[in-house]
Structure to design on (377 residues):
């Protein structure tokens, strides 16, 4: 539910200065439909001749041409937390091949990869976030236990030391750019990830002509996504709610929905067409979440649907407060009510137009320029 994969038509002009050079594009573990995987695909599309490496790919993923690490042949592929301490070693023993340019798509340790000596190989890294469970345990509970403080400190030191050879960083948001500066003491260019805004904007008339009579929540049903708060907000404002997605909190959220005074409907794992229809039928997307970037709010705005969410993280970039949505510094559901009542002040045309700046075409243009500048260095 975090992202939707674009088709081959989204590919831009390949990075010309890399045409005659050996290139590797690497990524962490490879799942089915994550936003980071889509970024990896789009980067690789700019360098069609590149070799593509991943730690492992999920069993149900049909993605040809991926070269998996030796970690994929071990039971550790089933447990990311257990595999984490080994990842820096894996990236240093990935292959004996040497490349002229290596581009990493990193949210853990992929940016530490070595496929050639730094004086001969140019290393570039697109960062979704410094590993949150290592650097930001308040965001990711997997690293928050007190007993994990010593190993977390050791991994932080290792992360900095093993990434000194990276010549250029790109960050997926200003939020992540700030973390790179704070944790690694490095600068990064902000290049927002690609969103298939054309698909969501180009809905059939039957989708466009809905009455927009409910509020919408979309995403994984996990604690930090605050779906319990979304239910409480709908209850406060007295509007029906649709919750789309899936996740381990489903039973808990259904119990909360039963206690609400408004109708709450669950849409489990809707496909892209169904999700688009849900966006177009919603009065607003409720998104009280602190995300690094957040693709779902952009998809909603591409459908002319405003966003009501937190004044934090990626929403500071993806939502224009007072024009394409409303942002609030609060997790109290009562503070969202006045903003929902102000929704008639906003226009769908302005909201859709704003979403266009996060298109796949825009990403292709910017990532190609970044690759060419970094490769020339």
């Amino acid at each position: 539910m975090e992202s939707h994969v674009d088709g081959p038509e989204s590919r831009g002009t390949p990075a010309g200065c890399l045409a005659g050079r050996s290139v590797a594009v690497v990524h962490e573990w490879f799942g089915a439909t994550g936003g980071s995987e889509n970024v990896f695909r789009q980067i690789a599309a700019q360098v069609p001749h590149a070799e593509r490496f991943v730690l492992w790919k999920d069993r149900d993923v049909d993605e040809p041409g991926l070269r998996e690490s030796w970690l994929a042949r071990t039971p550790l592929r089933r447990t990311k937390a257990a595999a984490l301490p080994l990842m820096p070693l894996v990236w240093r023993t990935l292959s004996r091949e040497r490349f002229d340019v290596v581009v990493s798509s990193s949210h853990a340790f992929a940016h530490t990869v070595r496929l050639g000596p730094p004086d001969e190989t140019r290393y570039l890294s697109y960062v979704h976030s410094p590993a949150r469970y290592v650097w930001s345990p308040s965001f990711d509970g997997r690293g928050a236990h007190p007993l994990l403080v010593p190993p977390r400190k050791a991994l932080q030191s290792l992360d900095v030391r093993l990434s000194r050879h990276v010549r250029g960083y790109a960050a997926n948001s200003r939020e992540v750019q700030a973390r790179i500066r704070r944790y690694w003491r490095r600068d990064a260019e902000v290049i927002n990830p690609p969103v298939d805004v054309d698909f969501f904007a180009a809905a059939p008339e039957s989708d466009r002509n809905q009455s927009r009579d409910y509020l919408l929540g979309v995403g994984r049903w996990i604690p930090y996504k605050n779906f319990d708060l979304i239910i409480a907000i709908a209850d406060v404002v007295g509007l029906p709610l649709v919750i789309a997605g899936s996740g381990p909190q489903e039973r808990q959220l259904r119990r909360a929905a039963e206690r609400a005074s408004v109708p709450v409907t669950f849409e489990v794992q809707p496909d892209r067409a169904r999700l688009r229809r849900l966006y177009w039928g919603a009065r607003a997307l409720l998104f009280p979440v602190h995300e690094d970037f957040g693709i779902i709010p952009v998809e909603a705005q591409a459908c002319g649907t405003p966003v009501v969410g937190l004044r934090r993280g990626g929403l500071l970039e993806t939502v224009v407060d007072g024009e394409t949505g409303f942002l609030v510094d609060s997790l109290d559901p009562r503070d969202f009510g006045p903003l929902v009542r102000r929704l008639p002040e906003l226009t769908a045309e302005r909201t859709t137009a704003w979403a266009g700046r996060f298109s796949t075409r825009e990403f292709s243009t910017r990532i190609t320029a970044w690759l060419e500048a970094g490769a020339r260095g």
Observations:
- The first helix runs from residue 35 to 46.
- The chain has a mean pLDDT of 91.
- Residues 197-358 form a domain with the Rossmann fold fold (CATH 3.40.50.2000).
